[in-house]
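Journal club prep — side note

Before the paper discussion, L.F. wants everyone to see what a predicted structure for a comparable chain looks like in token form. Sequence:
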Amino acid sequence: MARLLRLGPSGFPQHVIQRGNNRQACFHSEQDLIAYAGWLKQFSWEFEAQLHAWVFMTNHVHLLVTPQLDNGVSSMMQALGQVCVRYFNRAYLRSGTLWEGRYKSCLVQAEDYLLQCYRYIELNPVRAGMVRYPALLLV
């Protein structure tokens, strides 16, 4: 069965979630996080997707992003996924997939839901016990 097409209209925020394969770690070092953040910044600019909020957990990421072009998020995530898998496999002498299937996303249409997404993303590492307080990391 063919994959369903994603809705990716420009101007609508999307909450994006991508998990490591089998929920395994997709970031093992600070260098992994720095590399991912750099590519995320690069591809968000390249594909005109405004990044509002993000969190990199050990085994998944959450992004809140608004594409300025139709299907901009899909293009950004495809480019990001390809470069990350190559990096990870080379760095850790492995092969195969890094991510658990396609990324998940949902359109954020209501303003109150947009604020809930911001809070959810910011507090994710606090709820997971990784940090005590949310902090801002400038990329």
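L.F.'s comment for the group: The mean pLDDT is 89. Keep this in mind when we get to the figures.
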